[in-house]
Structures are given as structure tokens and as C-alpha cells.
Amino acid sequence: MADTRVTFVIRENPPARLDKAIARDVPEQAHLSRSRLARLVADAAVQVNGTVVTDPRSKLTEGDEIAITVEITQDLETKPEDIPLDIRHEDDDLIVIHKPVGMVVHPAPGSPGGTLVNALLHHFDGRLSGVGGEKRPGIVHRIDKDTSGLLVVAKSDAAHHGLAKQFEKHTVHRRYLALCYGTPSASDPRLRGAKGTSFEPGNILKITTMLARHKTDRQRQAVLFTGGRHAVTRVRIVEDFGAAALVECWLETGRTHQIRVHMAHAGHALIGDQTYGGRRKLPKLHPGLEDVLRFPRQALHAAELGFVHPVTQEDMRFAADMPADMQALRDALSGLA
User: Fold this and answer.
1) Of 172, 296, 299, 324, which one has the greatest count of Cβ atoms within 10 A?
2) pTM of the full predicted structure?
């Protein structure tokens, strides 16, 4: 995926807010809609006079120099592929699928095939919602390539709109299981004093921040406290292994990499996370576990998914056990407790 840079200067008498001012003055040939510009501001892709600005309410003045970094996606041909799917539920309007580790949800540069969309086109050709367009038929939400777990896919447009509304209102139940460094406990004074973290009854860690694209690494998310997008994660200890823990995480919001970046911010990065895990290595603390703890991916699994069926109004709940690699890691860590 390549980036391009759109630059222009704010004209006289700009609107009072940044988002409105850049929407007025951005060159027409850039083909950037108001909604796209709003997302770019939140994603830290807009600079004013060389400084990243993420607050859409910021004021601009005549002559301010604007630079917007825009991702340019290649035009990919999406073809049906005979890839097995683990289907947990199917009806006339939707499908619930258990996505395996290593599968990308939809084609993108670097992953033009072998994706969930390629598999869906083979199994459900002509019976998927068109709301997401030709490139993302039926796709309502995503999980990362190296995260396993449950996804709901829309077959009808009515289901797609209804599910999208539930995700927008944050009423979809999503519970993840993760293995992290250390134990995120209320007894830790460092964690109690960390900005954006607090504890609720039952030793439940609540992480509340803003999230936006990292200023220099566009593949990462960064924690902010002004600008960006509001994000809330709750974390509860399931098993305490001392140097590590099995935790369950609930998403109040569903931002890109939210659990991974929030857990890293709290000082409890996910084991195996190559992007946010830093250099911490459990084998240094526990010699003899080197082979087991060379975990090749973030130890994260979308274990539960619940929503109201957008057509029948039935309450739907699904659960999926952890994959074998995470279970093996959990068993190895249990010997430390």
C-alpha cells in the first residue's frame, strides 16, 4: 500500500473549524469527501504547517499550509477461491464464521488472495450483501490476520445495515481471550497511576484513551488523549501465571488494533505481538521455556460474539474455543504458577 501527499494552502476567511476549512479548500482533483477527510484527521494524517493536528475543532488561518497523507490502494481483482470455511451459523441473512489464524479478511496489496472474501465468493457467490462494495461483500467488521475467532458476515443488505448500526452503537458483545506479559492487577501501583487506566469492581481494568494512526508508522496505532477516536477496553484476569496472565477483554468500542495497543499502553503487551510487544521476553525470566515462548503471533482470540439478529430480532450468542497454539502456550505457562 503506497501513500500520496496532498498539499494546499488555506484561503481567506476560512470556516471556524479545521475539518470544515480543509473540506472547503482541498483540491477537487484529490477526490476527498468530507467523511474521508474527517477520518484522515482522526487518523493523524493531516498536518498544519508541519505539525500533525487531530482535533477537528482546531482553528485555521489564511495562509496555513496543509499536508494530507492519503493511502492509495491498488485496484485488485477479487476472485472466488475454494478455501474451507468453519461456519458456526448460517441463515437467509447472515453467516457466523470462525476465522483461523493467518487468514486476511479481505484482499489488499500484499494479500491479493487467500482471504475470507475470496472464500465467501466461492461458497456464497451472489448471496452476499453488496453494501460493502465489490471488494468487501458482506464484510461488516474485521479481525487481524494473526488473530483467530468469530466474525459475522451479512448475506442480505438489511442484515448489513442492521449489524452496522449495532456496531456503531457499540451494542455488539465481543469478548476476546489473550495471553499477556505480567498480571494487570489493581494491586499494582504503577498501573493505578498510569494515564488512561482505572479499575472497576471485580479487579476489572478499564483503559480509556483516544487512538489514531502513528505519526511516523502508518501500520501502527498510537495512544492519544486529545484528538483521534475514543476507545474503551475492559480487562479481567482469568488465570495468573505470575510472569504472564490469561485475560479476557471486552470491547466497548472497536478500533483498529485496539486491544493490542491498549494492553501495550498499560504495560501488559500481548505475548507474540511483533508490533506492540516491544523487546520483553519471558524466557529471560524463566529459562527453559525458550521453545514454547517463541510465539509467532499476538496471542489473541475472538472467543465470543453476540448481537441481535437484524431481521428476526433474535438474541444471538456464539463461542469458540482457543486455537491449539494458544492452548499449548497456556498449558506451558500454567506450569509457572
Assistant:
1) 299
2) 0.78
Neighbours of 33 (CB within 10 A): 10
Q: Rounded to an integer, what distance in angstroms lies between the CA atom of residue 140 and that of residue 162? A: 10
Place of cell 484476569: 237
3-state secondary structure of 55: coil
Catalytic hit among 144, 146, 188, 273: 144
- When computed from its CA atoms, the radius of gyration of the chain, rounded to whole angstroms, is 22
Distance CA 212, CA 286 (A): 35
Examine the residue annotation and report whether 93 is marked as an active-site residue of this protein: no
* Cβ-proximal residues to 256 (8 Å cutoff; 6+ apart), any chain: 211, 221
Nearest alpha carbon to residue 56 among 44, 68, 38, 70: 38
Q: What is the mean pLDDT of each run of 10 residues along the chain (337 residues)?
A: 80 92 87 85 91 92 92 68 95 96 82 86 84 77 94 94 91 96 91 91 95 79 87 96 93 92 95 82 58 82 98 97 94 79
Pairing of strands 2-9, 65-72: antiparallel
| 25 vs 18: CA distance, rounded Å | 11
